[in-house]
Amino acid sequence: MNRALSLLRRRLLTSLPVFLIVIVGSFLLLEAAPGDAVDAYLVSVGGDAGLAAQLRHEWGLDRSAWARFLTFATALVHGDLGWSVAFARPIRDVILERLPNTLLLMGAATALSFGLGSLLGIVAGARPGSICDRVLSVASLAIYAVPGFWLGLVLIVVFSIELRWLPLGGIETIASSRSGLDRGLDIARHLVLPVAALGFIYLALYLRVMRAGMAEVWRMDFVLALRARGLPQSRIVIAHVARNALLPLVTLLGLQSASMLGGSVVIESVFAVPGIGRLAHEAVAARDVPLLLGIILSSAILVIVVNFLVDIVYAALDPRVGASEERA
Amino acid sequence: MTRRLFSTPEGIAGTAILALLALAALAAPMLFPRDPLSIAGPSLLPPFHDPAHILGTDRLGRDVLAGLFHGARVSLAVGIAAAAAALFVGAVVGTIAGFAGGFVDEALMRVAEAFQIVPGFLLTLAFVSIAGPSLPVVVAAIALGAWTGPARVARAEVLSIRERDHVAASRVVGMHPLEIALREVMPNALPPVMALSSVIVAGAVLTEAALSFLGLGDPNRVTWGAMIAEGRAVLRSAPYLSIIPGIALVVAVVGVYLFGEGVVEASASRRRYQ
């Protein structure tokens, strides 16, 4: 537990300046965008130029850029992301409402790509250079080349239009008044295709890293020693080679979280999943820059949190990590 | 080098695909001189029915094959330009960070980290939606989300190269630090950075497609992503309209990856013979 706390402190210390840079970058983008918060607010409530000038003064928007930045940053620290024109509601509420769907989608897609990817990676890495390995390597290259949104459309054509097995989109059947397990199953049915489309592409990455890691481990002396001791091949592959190659995949989990959040924009748009990815697309379509920046800031926080969780898992799996860092 | 590139199956396949694509992109204005966005025939013609429109026509009667050829131009141009920009910025930032060290290094790497915790595609979206969709903006936006990888690799390389003897020698003879950084260190740090180029070009092509799929591409150009989005409206009756440009995209990106693998294997075997 002590190790987790010291990891948390280290992660916080390194993340704070980085997050500050993200805030400054967001502020610069916001300043570059046409219109300001008052314009945005007045679009949804209405008002004349006099009210606009009065609001600008009250909100401190007629002051210097530095003062405006301080206002922006202070509001952020208090959890206030501003006002969304497109939804005529506070941005924070809109994002919090959509976030669970994205977390569900990403969690399931990560589980799929990590599980299946590492499994196939073990199959390929069990005998580097074999036919099986070459076929899987080329296949993973091809998978990684598939655009997620296109894969989503192909899945819709096959499973929703031709076979009629799965729903076209959305997160659950509208106005079905289901509850409990029934509702859960309904949501799961709606998520099968988006999770497949999002997870399938990242699968290739885990496969390749797993395979490359195993190819490294095979060259080590201890594998030779295991062979000399007469351990069965399957045991060497699973209990020793694959196990030692698994650690880099855990790091990849954290690195991929940002990329997958980006990928969920197109997937959620294709499948009409009401998550923050689709929200980003809606914000762009409605020219709601503050909402888009709110999404960017929240995803940055999400990525920091995911990376911290990955750190803890990593430290739990590899006892060397915490020990060496405490000394440092 | 070229002969070794053609000695691997990946190298041969990748070079062939990229050569065909480049040919298609260059020949597009000659083969299909009309504006690919103009109406060419009856609407929703299925593929392989009319020899005048081999791959059929879309909802508005625009020729799909002409769109594919002209789309190759945008995909290749944006992919290569964005990757070149990302590699250039990454190499320069990485070299400065690694060579200067200290506070400059710390600050530049924190900025790179800030770019890494923000999902690259969201940043690209924000940039395009603020600056307005046009080809240069799209290129800059994609590069903005892709320069951190090359920067990290360049920095790591520079850190090891700056300790080498020839760098120390240049310091002893009194070369200006900037000259050492640019003439002694950077050229040696480039190969591993360039090895990233196939992944970055492929990523840029896919990002451009996703952007235009969401309607944020240059509206005056045909792009594969926009064609896929356009076909989505008639997905039920004419799925080929979305499927065909997607296949072109996959083939192009696979070509880039295979070419990259081929180059890596060719340079690895060269090193082995030395």
What overall form of chain A do the CA principal axes indicate?
Answer: globular
Helix- and strand-based class of chain A? mainly alpha
Shape annotation of chain B: elongated
Mean pLDDT of chain B: 87
Ranges of chain A where pLDDT stays below 50 over 5 or more residues in a row are 323-328
Order of helices and strands of chain A: HHHHEEHHHHHHHHHH
Portion in strands of chain B: under 5%
Radius of gyration of chain A, in Å, reads 24 Å
Compute the number of strand runs of chain A.
2
Biggest pleated sheet of chain B: none
Largest interface: A-B, 47 and 43 residues
Question: Portion of residues in helices of chain B?
Answer: over 70%
CATH class of one domain in chain A equals Mainly Alpha
The rounded distance between the terminal residues' Cα atoms of chain B is: 13 Å
Structural class of chain B: mainly alpha
CATH topology tier name of one domain in chain B: MetI-like fold
Radius of gyration of chain B: 22 Å
Kindly, what is the distance between the CA atoms of the first and last residues of chain A, rounded to a whole number of angstroms? 18 Å
Structure description:
The complex is a heterodimer of chains A (328) and B (274). The radius of gyration of chain A is 24 Å and the shape is globular. In chain A, a hairpin with a 4-residue loop joins strand 1 (83-84) and strand 2. The longest helix of chain A is centred in the middle third of the chain and has 39 residues, at 180-218. With 328 residues, chain A is mainly α. Residues 323-328 of chain A have low confidence and may be disordered. Chain A has a domain at 91-285: MetI-like (MetI-like fold, Orthogonal Bundle). Chain A has 14 helices and two strands, in the order H-H-H-H-E-E-H-H-H-H-H-H-H-H-H-H. A two-stranded antiparallel ribbon of chain A has the order 1-2. Chain B is mostly helical. Chain B has a domain at 78-254: MetI-like (MetI-like fold, Orthogonal Bundle). Chain B has helices at 2-5, 9-31, 64-100, 102-117, 120-131, 135-144, 148-161, 165-172, 177-194, 197-213, 224-232, 240-273. In chain B, helix 2 packs across helix 12 (240-273), helix 3 crosses helix 6 and helix 5 (120-131) runs antiparallel to helix 6. Chain B is elongated and about 75 Å long. Classes of the chains: A mainly alpha (328), B mainly alpha (274). The A-B interface holds A 17-19, 21-22, 25, 29, 32-33, 141-142, 144-150, 153-154, 156-157, 161, 258-259, 261-263, 265-266, 269, 280-281, 283-285, 287, 289, 292-293, 295-296, 299-300, 303-304, 307 and B 110-111, 113-114, 116-123, 125-127, 129-131, 145, 202, 206, 209-210, 213-216, 225, 228, 232, 235-236, 239, 242-243, 246, 249-250, 253-254, 257-258, 261.
